[in-house]
Amino acid sequence: MNKHAGSERNLTLVMDLYELTMAYNYFKQGNKDQLVYFDMFYRKNPDQGGFVIFAGLQQLIEAIENMHFSDGDIEYLRSLNVFDDDFFAYLKDFHFTGTIYSVKEGTPVFPYEPLITVKAKLIEAQLIETFLLVTINHQSLIATKARRIVQEAKGRPVMEFGARRAQGYDGAHYGARAAYIGGVV
Hints:
Number of helices: 6
Shape: elongated
Structural class: mainly alpha
Largest sheet: 3 strands, antiparallel
């Protein structure tokens, strides 16, 4: 059975063109399979707070497990006239084979502390960078704000109504999940 068939969403092209051009460069230079490690961390707490609540890992892993370049993705990339047929053949068979090490969701984290370490082939690590950043940054920001609101409520119940102002249904769903991680009921 094709693991990419069915209702799974293909979010593979949720990336900057930069990621693809860098991956193409690694491919052409012949170092795409070099084993690398990279850490995701942040430099400054938002709103001068003392910590951030880590969130978003589940969605990151689900997207990486389903990551593949569909025929439509490759047709679109071909229309850019940037990449060659050898690279498209590589993308057609692409799947992430690396390892993700991570802090547990809901954990308070601090600047310059590794939140996620990716151990992977150079090209694979490059291709997941944008999705990793957008997923973890967005959900951790919401979880952190939620935790601060819950602390200020001093035991009074706090409810999440973010769907009314969220940027799309994904933003509403993942925002509510992150708020729950941050302590909102």
